[in-house]
Design a protein that fits this description.
With 118 residues, this protein is mainly alpha-helical. The chain folds into 2 domains: 71 residues, no CATH class; 43 residues, no CATH class. The protein is 69% helix and 0% strand. The protein is built from 5 helices and no strands. The longest helix has 21 residues. About 11% of the residues have low confidence.
Length: 118
């Protein structure tokens, strides 16, 4: 059954535009979690509510994809990103540095921030 689900090509790909650098890893992990769940809980499938693939897609999109995101993403990297956002905010709002006086630091900070957001 697992092979049929995988070969069908009908599993959805939720939030495809997000997590550009980690999407495939998140998706693969979510699919593994989904297929394990399906094997262990096939008795919870109700054919009156839709096809097996429809059930799998609902589970993948609403549960497993969301559950896997924090497992896959590097939490220290996320913390660094939030720290960098704070630094940029402080730089722009409180310290009032001009781009001319600290251009190199500003440009490097903006570059690093852009890299973390892609």
């Amino acid at each position: 059954m697992v092979q049929l689900i995988l070969r069908s090509g009908w599993l959805c790909r939720p939030q495809r535009s997000k997590f550009l650098h980690h999407y495939e890893e998140i998706y693969e992990e979510a699919c593994q979690e989904l297929l394990l769940y399906v094997c262990q809980h096939i008795d919870r499938y109700n054919p009156e509510r839709g096809s097996v693939l429809a059930w799998c897609n609902v589970l993948l999109e609403r549960r497993f994809f969301k559950e896997v995101i924090p497992k896959v993403l590097d939490k220290p990297c996320i913390e660094k990103r939030h720290s960098l956002i704070w630094i940029i905010s402080l730089h722009q709002k409180n310290l009032q540095f001009s781009r001319n006086s600290c251009g190199n630091v500003y440009n490097q900070t903006q570059k690093t921030y852009s890299e973390l957001n892609t």
